[in-house]
Each structure stands twice: as C-alpha cells, then as structure tokens.
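Async update (no meeting this week)

Hi team, since we skipped the sync, here's where things stand on the single-chain job. The sequence we agreed to prioritize is pasted below, unchanged from the tracker. I ran it this morning and attached the output directly underneath so nobody has to dig for it. Comments welcome in thread, and please keep replies under the output.
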Amino acid sequence: MKRLTDIAASRRTWAWPYVLFLVLFVVLPLLLIIYYAFTDGSGHFTIYNFVRFFHTSEAVNTLIYSLAIALITTIICLLLGYPAAYIMATAEFRTPQVMALLFILPMWINFLLRTIATVELFNMFGLPLGEGALLFGMCYDYLPFMIYPIYNTLQKMDRSLIEAAEDLGANKREVFTKVILPLSVPGIYSGIVMVFMPTVSTFAIAELLTHNKITLFGSLIQRSFGEGGIAMWNYGAALSLIMLIIIALTSFFDQGDKNDTQKGGLI
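Output:
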C-alpha cells in the first residue's frame, strides 16, 4: 500500500500522460512530416520536393508574400496593441478590467465564426474583399495576442523606477522612452512572436476574406494535402517543414528572459 502511495505521489508518474501526449501528437506528427518531405511516392529518399519548391516561382513568391502580410499584421497589431496595453496597465478603478473583457469577449467565439462575421460586415457596408479585408481580419483575430503579453509586463514592472526617474527630473517623454519602453521589451518580443507565427501560416482567414483571390503559404500547404495523391502529400510535407523551420527561426527572436517577462527589465 505504501509503495502505491509513493508511486502516486511521484512527479514522474504524473508526467507520463503528458509524455504520451507529446509523443503521439507532437513528436510523431513531426517525424511523419520529415519522412514524407524527404521521400517520393514510392517511399524512396529524395530532395526533389524541396527542389520543386525553390524552382517554382509561384510558390516562392507566395511564401514571400505571406511573410510580408504577417510582418505588416504584426506591426499594425503592435501599433494598436501597445497603447491599449499601456492604458490598461496605468489606468485606475475598473478601466483595465473593462478593456480586458472587451478584448477577451470576441475570443470566446471560434475564430472561423468571427471571420465569417467579418465577411458579412464588409458585405453589409459594401466594402471590397481583398488585401485590406485580409489585414483587417488578421489584426482583428490576433490583436489580443499582442496586447496581453505587453500588458502583463507593464503591469508587473517596478513602479519605483518610474518614481526614481521623476525624482531625478525626467519628464513624461523621458520616463517613457528610458524606463517604461525598455521595461516592456520582453512583452513586445513575446507579442511579436505570438502574432507573427500564426499569421504566417494561416489559410482559412485568407480564403474567407478574399474569396480565394489571395493565396497565402498556408493555403498552398492545405491545397497540396487536399488535392490527393501521395506525390502531393510529399510536396505538402516539404512545404510544411519549410514553414516549421521559419517558425522555429522566428521563435529565436523571443530573447526575453522569463524573469524579465514577469518583472520587466531594462536593456
């Protein structure tokens, strides 16, 4: 009985379900993607799938365009999200709670339903569906992912640093540029990564908000798997692996230390 109690109390025992989940739904899918990416329809090793991508100008241009759309979306979200996060972090009474609720409410609804509602909104006002609608939909869906990391960092920063700067004669602009902004950099890094990574690989938003007039890299991957045929699966796996590499490289820009993200840190 004591042995069973010791096993139940062991952290290693409770970790096994998570290990099993990671193996089945993270490691195994990644291995399958790598396998299909480097094989042909007969299962033989090849790098033709990658050669095909780099020799297809349409696919390369689609990747570049997707990166540009993701970058523009990230910049817009940062320009809109930072002031909102700053107001939430510095406001008094119930203003932060109300603003947080307003940003959270849309996230309670599936993003596909939100995107369909956005399409109907554009149709109702007679606005064209295209690149502008795509950027609007991207920012609408991912803006909260920029706001909350910045808000959490600003909220937890040491206020005594601001008071010290004011006591030393710094004006509001100097306090912001030399104290508040450096303290919020870890949150900005996290927000950029959390917005850029999903936007660079999305496809449903582009298909709905442009009526398939604009093709993003995620749409290219989805079509490769959806058209059928093992050869297209191999090509789609290669495209997926390229996307995974880009996302992995993007994550390296998130250099904020965990302690800095929680407490803020001058740079």
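Quick observations from my side:
DSSP finds 13 helices and no strands in the chain.
The radius of gyration is 23 Å.
Reply here if anything looks off.
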